[in-house]
Amino acid sequence: MVARATAKARRAGLQVGFSTATAQELPFKDGEFDVVLSTLMFHHLPKKGREEFGREAFRVLRPGGRVLIVDFAKPPRQKSTFRLHRHGYVDLDKVAADLGRHGFNIVEQGDVGTKGLRYLVAQPDLSLAALEAR
Known about the structure:
The chain is an alpha+beta fold. Helices cover 30% and strands 26% of the residues. A hairpin with a 5-residue loop joins strand 3 and strand 4. The termini are far apart.
């Protein structure tokens, strides 16, 4: 994916740097980003990794930054014989609770409107009480 993105950026004449790392240990400075984006990746993380992501996202965001997560929601109950493709899913309500424990306020969440995708937007709570709780 990184090789393909690098080639596309080069063809477009853009100078873009790509990095690979785990969501639990981001190799970036504190407060380096305005946005942390996770699209269709969260369901691959183990539960502990999802929890650790909140800590790292908070650390690398600038004040006023935000997190956007888009991923597969838990599908409605289906007959197991009819499922053609199975993939993981994320309970974004649990993710929201984890992010809250790491100092985030949930700004918005809901359905994307296609393929069972849901989204969540969160911002760091920069109040003194929230910072002391961390």
